[in-house]
Design a protein that fits this description.
- It is built from 9 helices and no strands.
- With 193 residues, it is mainly α.
- Helix 1 packs across helix 4 and helix 7 packs across helix 8.
- The longest helix has 25 residues.
Length: 193
């Protein structure tokens, strides 16, 4: 992706995080990105293209900050990796706050937008499958259906905890504690026949 496209998508994530999908105006996006509206339309065709590409951008960015590790660090156990990947979604950094806020706004708008709904369903399925694979590394003998169900519960909980934290309903430390406890509960349930 060109640097201009990336610049526009970074600005779109910021605008959506601040003003929501309904508040996204191409003129405001252009001003935020420091480009012309014509350039935005050139790269993304229309508003739907902007939203679809922004969703993909925030997913890619989340993958980067949840999987980036110091190459000199000690390798993590499967359980430590599972915990880390999930807990890195609850970081008090501008990038994570912006990403999580934009994701929540896109999720809320998908209720009224079938195209966005399909894209979000695919992105959510991919995320759930990634978490199921991590769970499977911790509990390799667990049935695939049980791993998928546990991953779905954990990703749904994480989204809810993130929104509560971002909106001031709970503190980040409490959200992280609840998530750790939920991972323990899910792993224990995978041990049962």
């Amino acid at each position: 992706m060109s640097s201009r496209s990336t610049q526009i998508l970074e600005a779109a994530a910021r605008v959506i995080a601040r003003r929501g999908v309904r508040g996204l105006r191409v003129e405001e996006l252009a001003a935020e990105a420091g480009v012309s509206t014509g350039l935005i339309y050139y790269h993304f065709k229309d508003r739907t293209g902007i939203l679809r590409n922004t969703l993909e951008f925030i997913n890619d960015r989340a993958e980067r900050y949840t999987t980036a590790r110091d190459p000199d660090a000690e390798p993590l156990s499967a359980r430590e990796e599972l915990d880390e990947v999930l807990l890195l979604e609850l970081q008090d950094t501008p990038e994570v706050r912006e990403n999580s806020s934009a994701w929540g706004e896109l999720r809320a708008s998908a209720v009224f937008d079938p195209v966005l709904r399909e894209d979000l369903a695919r992105a959510t399925l991919t995320w759930t499958q990634e978490v199921a694979a991590l769970l499977g590394r911790v509990r390799p003998m667990a049935p695939a259906a049980a791993l998928a169900a546990a991953a779905e519960r954990l990703t749904a909980l994480l989204e809810g905890l993130s929104m509560r934290w971002l909106s001031g309903g709970i503190g980040i430390d409490h959200a992280r504690t609840l998530l750790r406890e939920a991972v323990g509960v899910e792993l224990a349930s995978l041990d049962r026949p």
